[in-house]
Every structure is written in structure tokens, then in C-alpha cells.
Amino acid sequence: MSKGTTRKYAKFSALVLLLALVSALITAFTTNNNQNNDESANKAYSDKELVKTLPGFKNGYKKVNGITLHYVEGGKGEPLFLLPGWPQTWYAYHKIMPELAKKYHVYVVEYRGMGSSDKPAAGYDKKTMASDIYALVKELGYKKVNMAGHDIGAFVAYAYAANYPQATTKLAVLDVVHPSERYLELPLLPPPGVYDTSVKDHPIYPWWFGFNSVPDLPEKLLQGNGMRIYQDWLFDYLAYGKPAMTKEVKEVYYAAYSSADAIRASNGWYKTFRQDIEDFKTYPKLSMPVLGIAGFDSTFRNLDAHLSKYATNAKSLKLEGAGHWIAEQKPQETIKLFNEFFQ
């Protein structure tokens, strides 16, 4: 190799090293900046900070069935337990909690796998999750409570009422009820019109039931920004026309589901649907008063058909303009319905 060639090679090598150094510095700065932003966001949307926006409420933690459950409580009166859904947290009820607390002692519980509650490797069938709630109810000193749930929370609330009728005063389920053999009839391919969100009351096609049941893959694909994109799509698809939540409220849910562990745990709720269906076959008809509130025509039909068959004292209704995010999109109407039903 000639001296000229050697010098050119040395200069080229130095340039490559310089570019690599600059790239590494940029990557390190960006990563550190993103981590700082994530830490700031997580702090801003922590339970400690969020509960400050709801005067009279406080965070609570209890260890039951070998796991720690987080809940937010406030108010005075008969106990009313609220169970949120996916992909949200206890904050899903923030618009209705203050008013309900004027008449009830409200407990919003993050069940197994959600938010600040423990995320064990197993136990995500709704019968086991209901046993967690029952243990919490007893730990808090109650023998009988009012129970309400939305989405996955409705599954758990229903399982609670079915397994512990002696501990259930009244039950309210929002937009869904409990996995049954009807779930096995869902089509693999979407029917026409289910994605036409220009039609506000469009039929719902829950394709995520299958995706969330796949082992390992969702958390690998979604952790970080991917889950945010997923949640945004769901928040819009399941809303009635206009967006159901502000950007600030969405940030609360983004922060709660951004990690692989949070995605893994929440998907556990879906991976157990087959077991939930088998458990449902053993449940008696519900005998306590039951209220079903739906936000779409399609979810109302399913809810009403189920409760008409499997509950002896049930009332189902459609809350116009509520969509799936009922307590977020129609808070005042939800408060009114709850006060009338649980009084």
C-alpha cells in the first residue's frame, strides 16, 4: 500500500470513528432525554399526584390472596366498588367519583394485573380475580357491597356476584357482561361496516380478543410507543363520534401500559377467556338486582340477551351517545343511573 493510500485510509478511518462517536453521543443523549421524559411523565401521572385532583379521596393498598391490590377510596355511605377496564386504570372513573362519594363510600379497585396492583405470572381467570376482590371486601370490613364494573372490570364484577351472591347487594355492568360460549362464535374475518367510524353507532368487532391472547408477541411489539398507538386506536374506535378523552387523560393510561410487564399482565385477562367460559357454565343465575348499561346498539343487544337469560332481576338500557367509554363520555348520565339504581 502506498503512503498516499495509507494516508487516505487513515483519514477515512478517522472520519468513520468520528461519525460513530457523534452517533453514539446523539443516541446516548436521546435515550437519556427519553428516559427523563418518561420518568417525568410517570411521576406526573402517578397515583400520588392523580389522587390530589380528587379532594376527599386517598390511595389504599391491601395484601390479599398473596398479592397487593391498589385502590382509591373516598366518600361516606354504603360501599360501592367500581372496577375499571382495559386499557385504563382506576382513573377511568375520575369524572363520576366525586359525585358518587356524596352518597356512597366509593372504592375504585385496580385488580390483579392493573396499574399499581401486583402483576403475578398467573391467576387471571375471572373467578380467581373475583376471589381477590372478595378477599379485599372482607379485609376492608364489609360483608356485603354494591359492585359495578366496566369492560374487563365487568367480567370480574359479574364473576364476583355469581360466586359470592351473599356478598353482593346490587350489580351494574357497563357495555359487556361475562365471557360465554357466544365468544366462540365470533368470526375470524370482520363483518362489513365494523370499521366505518363515520357511523357513530357502528357495530363493534373485538379483534383484539385474539391478538391479546397470543403469548409473548404483543409485549415485544407494543412496549413503549407501540402501545400508545394501539390505545389511541381503541380510544377512537370505541368512542361515540367525538373523542371520549382529552390528551391529558390518555397520558395517564399510556404511562400505565407502556412497559412489557404491564402489557403481559393485562393480556393475561384475555388469555384466560377459555377458562372463563368453562367457569361460566357452572354459575347459577344471578338473583340480586342487576343493571346493564350499553353504549352501542350492538353491545346493548348482547348485554340484554345475556342478562335476560342469566339474571332473574335485571334491567338493560342503552345510554345514547356513550360509546364504550361510558363513564368518560357520559359522566352525568352515568351518575344519575347509578344513584337511581344503587339507592
Automatic annotation (TrEMBL):
| All copies of domain AB hydrolase-1, residue ranges | 79-331
Question: Which terms does the record give in the GO molecular function aspect?
Answer: hydrolase activity
The highest taxon in the source lineage is Bacteria
Could you list this entry's UniProt keywords, alphabetically sorted: Hydrolase, Signal
Q: What is this protein called?
A: Alpha/beta fold hydrolase
Signal peptide start-end = 1-28
The protein's matches in Pfam families, at most eight in alphabetical order, are given as: Abhydrolase_1
User: Which intervals of the chain form a coiled coil?
Assistant: none
